[in-house]
Amino acid sequence: MSAEPAPAKTAAATSATAPATAAAPSSSLGNAQRGKELAYTCRGCHGVAGFKNAYPNYHVPRIGGQSEAYLRSALMEYRKGTRKHPTMRAQATSYSEQQLADIAAYLASVKP
Fold it and tell me: What would be one Pfam family of this protein (predicted)?
């Protein structure tokens, strides 16, 4: 009796048994250079040491050097309305999601 040749492995079978290599996550979804051009209005409140907002009355945080992911998330939450602040909501809704990512990338690159 002659032995039949083993069936050839298909690409799908080979890839199913090969270890998966996940693509490295992007370190930045935003472009800091574009964000620098867009963030000029942010400096009016967040760039002034000791600045207090008129309404509601509270200390405005310095945001330079914060985590890019945190800043992007916060801006998106203002845009969606899940974070409540009328001025920040107005600012965030005036930009696209990509522009908010660019602003977050720039602000994260600024030294506090």
Answer: Cytochrom_C
Domain ranges of the chain: 26-109
Both tokens of 27, joined, read: 């370190």
Q: Which residues make Cβ contacts (< 8 Å) with residue 63, sequence separation at least 6?
A: 42, 46, 71, 107
Instruction: Give the Cα separation of 69 and 66 in Å (integer).
Output: 9
Q: What is the pLDDT of residues 38-93, one digit of tens each?
A: 999 898 888 777 777 676 677 788 899 999 999 999 999 999 999 998 989 999 99
Q: Are 97 and 105 in contact (CB under 8 A)?
A: no
Residue that is written with structure tokens 């039949």 in the block: 4
The answer on pLDDT for 108 being more than 70 is yes
d(C-alpha 62, C-alpha 107), whole Å:
10
Placement of tokens 């801006």 in the chain = 75
Distance CA 77, CA 108 (A): 17
| CB distance 110 to 64 below 8 Å | yes
